[in-house]
Amino acid sequence: MTGPPLSCDQLCAGYGRKRVLHEVTIRALGGRVLAVLGHNGAGKTTLLKTMAGLMKPQAGQVTCAAGSTTAALRSGFTTFVPSERFVYPDLTVEENLLLATPARSRRDAPDRMARAFDYYPVLAHRRHTRAGLFSGGQQRMLSIGMALMRAPSVLLLDEPSLGLAPAVQDHLFASVRRLASQESLAVVLVEQNVTKALGVADEVIVLRAGRTVHSGAAHELSGLDRTQWWELF
Ligand SMILES: Nc1ncnc2c1ncn2[C@@H]1O[C@H](COP(=O)(O)OP(=O)(O)OP(=O)(O)O)[C@@H](O)[C@H]1O
């Protein structure tokens, strides 16, 4: 693969005539975690959805190594995990994972499932349990496990830690880091939890009202105090 798996160039996006994102340029690279930070309403989810091909750019472009963003989403090259827990509550863990596997990849399902279980052992222990009986954290892990069944190259994660206890958040963030490093996945991580996101990210972009106010290496921001953060956001 030449070039980044997914990138945005001068991307503008929004809803109807309303423009939410203004000329955002980023690159998601294999094996790296790009954190997207910013206050509520800054445009983080809009950015992810446009990168995923769920929304069309109003101007600028999203370039995907696998072709159009919609084709990449359909083929599983790009996978979007929304902040709402999206699992089938009446199905078991195994059934949820199988349902997420593209029909053409059914033969690979056992290997992919083993890999998801490696990242989230609780899913293996409770593989015959209905997902609706799971805690919020376990459902979030199952959502990411379902994304892995598509063997993606790009993982777009919208606020994976939302509403979870700190210890569960730590486990999730550690798994995100491992996923990028071990699977050579390009991870784009939208997060409100700045400290934890910076702990696992390689690069960071900060959005304010849909505009990039900072982009660079994550370690450059890890030493900022609260006042400096407030000024940046
Ligand atoms: N479906 C929609 N139709 C119209 N406006 C929308 C829609 N979804 C979001 N917006 C608006 O777009 C702006 C950016 O929203 P977005 O959800 O991308 O921000 P965010 O940074 O992800 O915020 P949060 O952290 O609260 O999810 C907000 O002003 C929001 O009200």
Judging from the principal axes of the Cα atoms, what is the shape?
Answer: globular
Helicity level, as a percent range?
A: 25-40%
- Overall number of domains: 2
* Fraction in beta strands: 25-35%
CATH architecture of the largest domain: 3-Layer(aba) Sandwich
Largest sheet descriptor: 6 strands, mixed
Going across the biggest sheet, name each strand in turn: 5-6-7-3-8-9
Bound molecules: adenosine-5'-triphosphate
Distance N to C terminus: 35 Å
Mean pLDDT: 92
Give the SSE order as H and E letters: EEEHEHEHHHHEHEHEEH
- Rg for CA atoms: 17 Å
Query: What is the CATH homology-level superfamily of the largest domain?
Result: P-loop containing nucleotide triphosphate hydrolases
Number of strands: 9
Oligomer: single chain
Structural class: alpha/beta
Per the CATH scheme, the topology name of the largest domain is Rossmann fold
CATH class of the largest domain: Alpha Beta
* Poorly predicted runs: none
